[in-house]
Design goal:
Chain lengths: 113, 113
């Protein structure tokens, strides 16, 4: 069974602070995605990374893919209450089904005003 | 990306009964999946819905308990059969086109009493 370790599981911070969420595996990903989910909604795709060392930015969010394609991070700068939600990393593992995703446990982020 | 309409959005059911959840995609998709999620936690894949053939179930999930249909490339149903309180959860359908990026319905919050 291929596992995706995501940390931290819970994060409560004040508005304006920075934070980083990590996603790690012992296996290599063919691609990795980050999703954000709000209560009562399904997850919404934020970004996909496929190339080792890749960095993508989405406004205040910065996503990095490790050189070996085994880990990824999500960094949020100057967090705002609107960033509150469940953040999920999901990977498609090399050699497996390209369509089947394995999800991390999720990071429940609360940004307090 | 495509849009998935999932219904019902929530239901309260008596134990021993069955509930069928429907997902309609606004365009044809290659793959459709069904997940289960406890609030604030990660997603567990139940099965891959295969168009015109039997679904492929993950370990711990069986067809008798979670029969799935996918008559065409835009529609799928999941039935939760002979429900017990342990089946209380959020059920999500997702679709994927040519790559690994998934899009989700808004989920069905099921409570079994």
């Amino acid at each position: 069974t291929q596992l995706l370790e995501q940390s931290p599981q819970f994060l409560s911070i004040q508005e304006g602070e920075n934070l980083t969420v990590y996603c790690n595996s012992s296996s290599v990903f063919s691609s990795l995605q980050w999703y954000r989910q709000e209560p009562g909604e399904g997850p919404v795709l934020l970004v996909t990374v496929v190339t080792g060392g890749e960095v993508k930015k989405l406004k205040r969010l910065t996503f990095q893919f490790g050189d070996a394609r085994k880990d990824s991070s999500l960094h949020i700068t100057a967090a705002q209450p609107g960033d509150t939600g469940l953040y999920l990393c999901a990977g498609a593992f090399s050699g497996g089904s390209n369509y089947k995703l394995t999800f991390g446990k999720g990071t429940l982020l609360t940004v307090n005003p | 990306s495509a849009v998935i309409s999932q219904k019902p959005s929530r239901d309260i059911c008596q134990r021993g009964t069955s509930l069928t959840i429907q997902c309609q995609v606004d365009s044809q998709v290659t793959m459709m999946f069904w997940y289960r999620q406890q609030p604030g936690q990660s997603l567990t894949l139940i099965a891959t819905a295969n168009q015109g053939s039997e679904a492929t179930y993950e370990s711990g999930f069986v067809i008798d308990k979670f029969p799935i249909s996918r008559p065409n490339l835009t529609f799928s149903t999941l039935t939760v059969s002979n429900m017990s309180p342990e089946d209380s959860s959020i059920y999500l359908c997702s679709g994927a086109g040519g790559g690994t990026e998934a899009f989700f319905g808004q989920g069905t919050r099921l409570t079994v009493v």
